[in-house]
Amino acid sequence: xxxxxxxxxxxxxxxIDRGEVIQRAKDAGLGLLxxxxxxxxxxxxxxxLARQHPGFIHVAVGIHPNYSSDFxxxxxxxxxxxxxxxxxxxxxxxxxxxxxxxxxxxQQRRALIAQLELADSLNLPxxxxxxxxxxxxxxxxxxxxxxxxxxxxxxxxxxxxHAFGAPPEFLFPLLEAGFYFGIGGPVTYKNARDKxxxxxxxxxxxxxxxxxxxxxxxxxxxxxRNEPSYIPFIAKKIAALKGITPQEVxxxxxxNAFRLFGLExx
Length: 266
Fold this sequence. Notes:
This protein is of the alpha/beta class. It has nine helices and eight strands.
């Protein structure tokens, strides 16, 4: 079974053929898909989508750093309300993004810290976005994980680093803290040596498959709209880098996803 742990199927580019895209994902062997909210509107859309496809599509809800300029208590309460729904498995996509200036660092930090506290209170793992901010974000995440109560269900599985691209020195502290790493389309690009080295350095037990669709389309479809049915291309490249079979990648990354998101009993 394949999994896509980071998709944005609520994006308007899927409006014309969303049902067909979902069916192609199932036909490609996917058994689990997590649709990621980036703001209040996408959280609502993701929940509607999950309810149309129960047991297959699940949801993460959160305020993306690029949408955090107007973050306030009302938005936090809305996210908290959504997060209590049974379809929700995580708080995300949250983090810091200093590459773009859609929100100030102070606004991003305020939103992130509030949502990390929310994840703690609800025992939900986090889905972390990082861009040009690792030096500040990684220590913050490590401190948050270390402060979790010893009996917290997420102490040993705090979350996933989505599309990780930080310098190598940040990798081991995050592994030590129990974080997983989402690997997507860029690992298939011929010139993406950093992404390929990351996969070679990661234990397979800490890798998750993700598309980030409609973005980051893998080879050989690069330049087209991405979709979950392209997950096998990512698994095939990881398998080649690890010297194992795509089936082994699919099976282990599915186990990883079920553990991280508290679905092991299923």
